[in-house]
Amino acid sequence: AAVSPAVIIPCLVSLSGRGYGVEKGIPTLVIAASSADDVVAISGFGIFLGLTFFQDASMVKLMMHGPLEILLGVSFGTLWGLMAQWIPNKQHRNVTFFRWVILFSGGLIALFGAHWLKYDGAGGLATIIMAFVAGMQWRKDGWGDHNPVTKVFTKMWIILEPLIFGLIGTEIQIDKIDPETLGWGILVLVTALLFRMVGTFFAVSCGNLNAKEKIFLAFAWMPKATVQAALGPIFLERAKLLEMTEMYQMGEQILTLAVLSILITAPLGAVSIMGLGPKLLKKKKNEEDEDERENADLENDAHEL
Q1: d(CA 119, CA 46)
Q2: 194 vs 183, 208, 214, 262, 270, CA distance in Å?
Q3: Of 102, 119, 136, 160, which residue is 20 to 30 A from 214 by alpha carbon distance?
């Protein structure tokens, strides 16, 4: 399942600001891998969504639906991300505003356009790709991770985050949740998390990371929130749109599992990152020296008093 950048990025920015894991680029590795993870998850969701709701289509069309979604998402996202660098010129006095407008409008066009074309998975994929490409291009202009456009989207997210989770919450009817389904859902989530953590540990074993850093990465790729919040209701909405009543129960189960994954992994992952980071990651030497100087100064001041 997709990792949530909204959960891991603030935690990792805090750790990297204090020098933890910076020398081996662990914060960058976690963020980059989470973006790739989101691409794979959204693409896979789109493929199986198409296979479920277009069963009457020809086998060739069903087989091409998933690859076409990936092709559309990657192509549109790459082109729009490149456009976000060139329009307007980087010397323009309102460059931040126009780059924000282009990226924001591109995301809306991708999502609504993909829905209109009935390739829903391509929309989310294109949004992630365009943001990634735009960020890479902006770095060439001297902008870092904390650029002005990122700050605007961060402020927007403060308002939109509770809104999106609130809208999802309205879809869940607690009285209709089957306790057996809830129990099995929690069991499946916990089991999948354990397998994922073990897989993550071995996946990063080929590099130069030590055992502590591998354990940290296994926990860092745990949180799930934004992608599950965005994709969770789609199956149920599609079933209602096509009036496929036999799919309603399955859609409600998918939505319930999406919410459960958020409730379980998001807080647990955030606490794990912030708690295990200082214990498992090596601190940058310059940061250690500064801390030692600060402690020495405090001790000297205390002796003088």
Answers
A1: 7
A2: 17, 23, 14, 16, 17
A3: 136
User: Scanning the structure block, which residue is given the tokens 């929690």?
Assistant: 186
Phi, psi of 18 (to 5 degrees): -95, 5
**300 pLDDT more than 70:** no
The amino acid at 305:
L
Whether the predicted model's global pTM rises above the 0.85 cut: no
Cα–Cα distance, 36 to 2 (Å, whole number):
9
Work out the pLDDT band at 88, boundaries 50, 70, 90.
confident
Dump pLDDT digits (tens) for 113-130: 887 887 776 777 788 788
Give pLDDT tens digits for 177-235.
677 777 888 888 888 888 888 888 888 887 778 888 888 888 888 888 777 777 777 78
Q: How distant is the alpha carbon of residue 161 from its chain centre?
A: 13
**How distant, in Å, are the alpha carbons of 13, 33, 113 from that of 146?**
10, 19, 30
Angle, vertex CA 39, rays to CA 33 and CA 44, nearest 5 = 125
